[in-house]
Amino acid sequence: MQPIDVIYFIEHIARELDVACAVKFLLAKQGIQVEICSLVNHLDDTLSRWRPRLVAIPYGTSVKDTNLEPIIAHWGSARYINLSYEQVLGKTQKSFKAPKDQFARRHLLYTAWGDFFARYLETYGVPPGHIVVTGNPALALYTNPYREYYGQARTTLATRFHLDISRQWVFVPENYGWAFFKDHQVRDRIRRGFPPEDAFRYRDFALNSLKAASIWWRDAARLDGVELIVRPRPATPEAHFRGTVTEFAGEIPPHLHIIKYGSVREWILASDKVFSSYSTTLLDAALADKPVYMLTPSPIPDFLHAEWYDLTQKVATFDAFAASIQSLPDRANWEPLQAWVINQMMSRGDAIANLARLIAITLGEESPVAPPLEVSDALHRFSLDRVWRKFRKVAWNFGQLILTPPHWASPKENWSPHEQDQIEPQDIDRRLARWEQILRD
């Protein structure tokens, strides 16, 4: 295995790769080697090729989280940083996303977007010394000089997708992932800590909201002068999402575009207005000075409520949706939410530079967080729990294969949440070259 300073794992390219490449560029200027790898593709090759001193992971509530067990078993002597890409949590999510075991509470150095997340982690047993407030690096991409990375996003996207640049672009980054969950997937969330009294209510709420919103999008795309762009969330395949919207709304009109390409950032910068459900992309849009609206065709359940929801303008009917599209905002409606974002998640300055600095310091000095040697050793010993979880997974996949062979399966039954997460070396090289143009000084 080749020694390397840092392995930086990516789950979703659209969500994470822009920041990862910026951090890689900044660390390379200090002579620190960073390899960006997929957490969901070719993991065995990554584990057999590299021997890192530090590993950055996108999540870490437990050693049982997807694909973490083989990583920790293989690299028990490395130190670990949790980038924690989900930190703005509703009431129910706080218990579901909480640190749950020794690895999460004792062997992770956490990056926190703000003091609010640091306090949350401490509530669930993470020592204060294991938490560093860096700010939100993804939001930093909307600030100078980083936003220059996206160039003339509107012109580029208009050319690529044949969008009319003179029309009003209404961008809808959807967040109805639970609408697509089967019963066994809901039960799996319950096993992992989601409150059972809320789980199926959440699925029903998301499904009912998506049904209503699909019809709204269809009708809004028929308004004069509108290009309506709906972006499926990274974990939902585009064809699956398109089929579901068609099922609910019927024929998709010419100016309703379902496009998963690219990151949410370039679409927000290119668009005129942003509508979403309870998605944190509204935080992004507010920071980018875009009019923001929360779609609420179904009332948001109390167990999903988050503080920032009260700072957004709600749209509860199609008439209100159409009126919001066709009229100018009464005021800069993004300002209350923008002020909250800056105060909560951008109070420490340049979050991307802060993250790069934290990685460099952790490599160069004694870290307060020890490598998970004991956890790694335990993963090499027999465990009835691991055997049972492996058996359950294999049995489920075999049962699905017998009942529904792949060539029989519909898009709804045969799909992957990582259809666009294959990392290509040339893509990283291209992004690094772009960051060099912007950050070289």
Structure explained in plain terms:
- With 441 residues, the chain is of the alpha/beta class.
- The strands form 2 sheets. A 6-stranded parallel beta sheet has the order 2-1-3-4-5-6, with helices on both faces. The chain has a 6-stranded parallel beta sheet with strand order 9-8-7-10-11-12, sandwiched between helices.
- The chain is built from 19 helices and 12 strands.
- It has helices at residues 13-28, 43-49, 68-74, 91-96, 102-106, 115-123, 137-140, 153-161, 183-191, 196-220, 238-249, 264-270, 281-287, 318-326, 335-345, 351-364, 373-379, 384-403, 425-439; strands at residues 2-10, 34-38, 50-57, 79-82, 109-112, 131-133, 168-173, 226-231, 256-258, 273-276, 292-295, 313-315.
- 45% of the residues lie in helices and 13% in strands.
- Helix 1 (13-28) packs across helix 16, helix 8 (153-161) crosses helix 12 and helix 10 packs across helix 11 (238-249).
- It has 2 domains: 2-135 and 347-439, Response regulator (Rossmann fold, 3-Layer(aba) Sandwich); 146-345, Rossmann fold, CATH 3.40.50.2000.
